[in-house]
Design goal:
By secondary structure, the protein is an alpha/beta fold. The chain is built from 12 helices and 14 strands. Residues 189-191, 194-195, 216-219, 244-246, 259-262, 265 line the site of S-adenosylmethionine (SAM).
């Protein structure tokens, strides 16, 4: 496609002339395609400008960074195989490319909608990740060694930390906290504090907001260790308190996280989040015992319960579906996705919920929940009971 080459040359020129703002690919060739949209923006990585691709799939978002040369190839590839529409936004014009069913390329130009580069976004994304170099808390938590390299067996944990921070970043950007100068976070069941420290570091040092982060944890030993490290690192807005999620009487913040909290502890955390009207709730469930015990399945579905592992997975799916429905009923835009590959941890499912101003039909959602419970013979769902 010769015209496609012309478009790619326009892209190259816009990058060279520093007038590139962003590029959006949409309209998949295949109707049922999992990939819905790709947004491309400039980021700086170690002082080198690169193009960051945000791939919006049906149920997950993936970010990949490419050099300009690689990016041109990737955009060519996407337009040849995946997407039929692309808009290149520059400060001089918008260039719209459409590929017909017969692979005919149509290019049109219109007046620019962006008259200047999007500086704040570039700045915000500059230091998205957690830095290993001279990172005192990562060393003290045993993620890195004194030589600033990842400790043995800590690659997976480090990937998890970074992926989590990216997820938090995306959620903040899609919430009412987007331009907040101060962000408060409560981490329920903070454990050894890896993610709690990383969230604080990211808010404070990457996003430069006034951060107040509190970890709530059952085990006093972990509280003492984490408070000690926070003090040594002079993280004055980070503290850890001993207690159960259920009994936590402190003020719950604008963002509530609970990662790998066992069984109904995840529900306790969601309950705290909903009743405290927090802006963002992020949970990564651990085991799902409560609902499995409630199963009283008849009919064809009973076949699945003949196999323990399948019954266990079904309990996980039903529990998390019901959690998501309840969050939706209480006004949260909710997503369930794998936030990291299961080669790093099999507890890789995440439920994210962002408070919206849109009106939800609570009764209708709760009626659907009742119908779902009936299908599985569930009489009691712990989270639903808490909210009654
Ligand atoms: C599997 S660890 C996860 C730690 C951390 N959130 C992470 O993902 O790295 C779960 C932690 O939650 C704590 N925990 C379990 N139930 C709790 C409860 N009801 N209240 C407070 N902490 C709890 C445990 O002591 C444990 O440290």
């Amino acid at each position: 496609m010769k015209d496609l080459d012309i478009f790619i040359k326009e892209l190259t020129q816009s990058l060279k002339n520093k007038i590139f703002v962003k590029l959006i690919l949409s309209k998949p060739y295949e109707k049922g395609s999992d990939l819905k949209k790709v947004t491309v923006k400039i980021v700086e990585i170690k002082a080198t400008p690169m193009l960051s691709f945000l791939y919006n799939h049906k149920t997950k978002d993936i970010t990949k960074n490419h050099s300009f040369k690689e990016a041109e190839k990737e955009i060519n590839n996407l337009l040849t195989n995946e997407m039929r529409n692309c808009v290149l936004f520059t400060t001089e014009s918008n260039i719209d490319l459409n590929i017909s069913k017969k692979k005919k390329v149509l290019i049109s130009r219109s007046k620019p909608i962006y008259k200047s580069l999007i500086e704040p976004e570039i700045n915000r994304m500059k230091k998205r990740n957690i830095n290993i170099e001279n990172n005192a808390y990562l060393q003290k938590l045993g993620v890195t060694t004194k030589n600033n390299v990842l400790a043995k067996n800590m690659q997976g944990k480090f990937k998890q930390i970074n992926r989590f921070v990216e997820t938090i970043d995306d959620l903040i950007n899609s919430s009412n906290l987007k331009d907040a100068k101060k962000i408060t976070v409560t981490d329920m069941g903070s454990g050894k504090g890896y993610l709690t420290f990383a969230v604080y570091d990211h808010l404070k040092n990457n996003l430069k907001v006034n951060a107040e982060v509190t970890g709530v944890e059952l085990r006093q030993g972990l509280i003492d260790t984490c408070n000690g490290i926070a003090k040594e690192c002079m993280f004055s807005g980070l503290k850890f308190v001993q207690g159960t999620i259920n009994d936590y009487a402190g003020q719950v913040s604008q963002m509530l996280i609970a990662l790998h909290a066992c069984d109904t502890a995840t529900d306790d955390a969601i309950f705290k989040g909903i009743t405290s009207n927090v802006e963002i709730i992020v949970v990564s469930p651990c085991c799902h015992k409560q609902v499995r015990k409630e199963f009283n399945i008849t009919g064809e579905l009973k076949e699945i319960t003949q196999h323990g592992i399948l019954e266990e997975r079904m309990a996980e799916m039903v529990t998390d579906t019901m959690r998501a429905m309840i969050l939706e009923a209480y006004g949260y835009k909710t997503k369930i996705f794998e936030y990291i590959s299961d080669e790093h941890t099999h507890k890789n499912l995440m439920i994210s919920a962002v408070k919206t101003d849109q009106k939800t039909n609570k009764d209708e959602i709760l009626n659907r929940l009742t119908a779902l419970k009936k299908t599985f013979g569930i009489k009691n769902f712990y989270l639903e009971n808490l909210l009654k």
